[in-house]
Amino acid sequence: MKRLIILLMALVLAGPLAGLVSVAALMNPGTNSCGSGSLVVGSIPDSFSAQTRDGRTIALDKRQLTHAGTIITVGARTVGVGRDGVLIALLAALTESTLRMLANTDAYPESGSYPNDGIGSDHDSLGLFQMRPVSGWGTVAELMDPQFQARAFFGGPSGPNAGSPRGLLDIAGWQLLDPDAAAQAVEVSAYPDRYQNYQPVADSILAALTRAQPASLAGTGPTAPETSRVVFPLPAGTYTNTDSFGWRTDPYTGARAFHAGSDLAAPADTPILAVADGVVSFAAQRGTYGGLITIEHTVDGERVTSYYAHMYDSGIHVAAGDTVAAGQHIGDVGSAGKSTGPHLHIEIHPGGAGNPAVNAVDWLTAHGATDLTQAQAASAGC
Q: Considering the entire predicted model, what is its pTM?
């Protein structure tokens, strides 16, 4: 009890100082309950490019990237948003305006007198998130302010609209939605399928503009030595490949959606094995992934990050910073997060976590992954 009282006093005393921080940091991706202190916006580059999910290259200039930095900073200062919420906001702004502050002089001639990056024409929509005054998002003056738009998108107790229209934090269970579905829940777009195409771009922007972030998400974590071998992530004979990488019908929503991993169905508590030698960069619960482990590897001279998802807390057997060997027992198959039954969702990100995933099964096969037996898997975890 004494320790609790001391902790509470420290938090009260620290509260007024929080407003003095010019650029807040984003939270650990495993939690979504407080402001972040582990991620800050660094230098804004003059230009940046990344590929959409369908292979189109998006080129952004410094002004667009500055707007992205504003979204990140506002999200970092907003209790409950975290890294996942910031990613959703970047995804929405990329889709709605390509990160441009758009005036709308047909609907609101006065909007052209505010700083802007061009003229839009979608109904009476304005700004980064194409918010509409007639829908109650704010006045023209307010919606031509990038910080106001970001605050309105995140919403919640500190948002400007008191939950109507709903911001991200006003949507119950948003953490369990796929990022594109969460963006659509806020935007209520007539074209909900657009958002998922921009997720690799949003991931890349977040990694590029920030520093000192969790290694599992930035692609800037510990460098692992070259792996000695590559193995399949479940013991031979224990799993069935039930859902492949690529476009599919989402089992929850019935909508067409992109699946960034491969799903290997297996009995609960089946050992999950590290696919290569490496260093654990994240090991905790994270939104739709449920229990998530990410490991940094070097394979054939290239940095690679592997994701292992849907474990329960009791099924995570490593911690961030641990060094693991190929075939080591790192966790147990579960069904936490957005899952319809026990399975391993595995993703492979060549170049690191800030880069798009590739087909995990194809990648493993191409790199000569070998099957381990149950007995070998058990001994590897010792």
A: 0.59
